[in-house]
Amino acid sequence: MKLRVSAVQYQLETINSFDDFAAQVTHYVRTAAEYDSEFVLFPEYFTTQLLSMTGSTINRVDELPAFTDQYIDLFSGLAKETGMHLIGGTHVVRKGDNLYNTAHLFYPDGSVAEQAKLHMTPTEKKDWNITPGESIQIFETVKGKIALLTCYDMEFPEIVRMVRGMGADVIFAPSCTDDLHGFHRVRYTCHARTIENQVYVVTTGTVGALRNVDFMRANYGQAAVITPNDIPFPKNGILMEGEFNHDMLITADLDLALLYDVREAGSVTTWNDRRLDLYPDLSKS
After folding, report:
1. CB-based burial label for 202 (10 Å; 0-12, 13-18, 19+)
2. Residue 211 pLDDT
3. What residue ranges in the chain does DSSP mark as E strands?
4. What kind and span of H or E run contains 70?
5. For all residues of the chain together, what is the average pLDDT?
6. How many Å apart are CA 246 and CA 221, to the nearest integer?
7. Which position among 44, 124, 155, 241 bears the catalytic label?
8. Which of 83, 285, 88, 274 is nearest to 196 (CA)?
9. Please, are residues 106 and 63 in contact by the beta-carbon 8 Å criterion?
10. What residues does 206 pair with on adjacent strands?
11. How far is CA 125 from CA 100, 118, 122, 129, 132, in A?
12. CATH code of residue 84
């Protein structure tokens, strides 16, 4: 089975209204539709662009949940219009007294599924008061099982072992990093996770700057479609990548049959060769 994926290097810049945000999102989605994509990934925290409308300096994300209904209506409508699966990056939602940095999957019928980020960075904990998600799941689609793991989550191999054990073949990893150190931490660990678990990872990040939103003033991002390092795939494990820090979209085809082949008869068979006599089977946790 094959699936076509696109990933958006979302340009953060000051806007004046939600309509401006909607127009930018719609541009990317309709561009991906012109390429016959089936899945489109947006970055982590890209909806912080909505905070730029105030013009005053913003140092928290408490106001983002006020846009949740409009955000969901926009992406649900575009998913139904195009027939694509849209991973709407992440958006901060409020549940009770807590804020969650939540990835949203919008199905072609307009329905919505959620996965809250599980591991919080120091900024998320101390400055934005974001609460970590409490559970992990995978998502059934017509093209197989996928997982949504956000940025810092990819730096923890245990959680990727778990979603692979639950059947995920493709991991969509929205990201947001403000310097090259953070960018490379996420990028290198995405590569490691593809090798350890013989899965595809689709990742992307924000680019540009929000001059009046603290912690979003600098962004370093690049979209990539990452594969295991084995003979059926590119030698460097990069099926496709964008131009660093440019406003753009990338598209690639994922062949799930290749994953199944290398798991059974690849140059290395890392998933099957786990020494479960020496360490726990995290895939069944």
Report:
1. buried
2. 92
3. 2-12, 39-41, 85-95, 98-106, 112-116, 139-141, 144-148, 170-175, 200-208, 224-226, 238-241, 248-255
4. helix 68-82
5. 96
6. 8
7. 44
8. 274
9. no
10. 10
11. 11, 12, 5, 5, 9
12. 3.60.110.10
Q: Which residues of the chain have pLDDT under 70?
A: 285
CB 127 within 8 A of CB 152: no
**Can you give the pLDDT at residue 285?**
58
Q: Which domain holds residue 121?
A: 2-284
Q: Number of C-alpha atoms within 13 angstroms, CB side, residue 186?
A: 30
151 is an active site residue: yes
- The single residue of 124, 151, 190, 241 carrying the catalytic annotation is 151
- Do 273 and 24 contact (CB within 8 A), yes or no? no
Cα–Cα nearest to 39, from 137, 107, 140, 90: 107
Number of structural domains found in the chain: 1
Q: Quick check: helix, strand or coil at residue 21? A: helix
Work out the end-to-end distance of the chain between its first and last CA atoms, rounded to an integer number of angstroms: 28
Q: Tell me if residue 44 is catalytic.
A: yes
Q: State the DSSP code for 118.
A: -
Which DSSP letter does residue 266 get?
S
- Is 158 one of the annotated active-site residues of the chain? no
Token couple for 249: 């979209």
**pTM recorded for the entire structure:** 0.97
Task: Give the span between the Cα atoms of 46 and 200, in whole angstroms.
Answer: 23
pLDDT for the residue numbered 143: 96
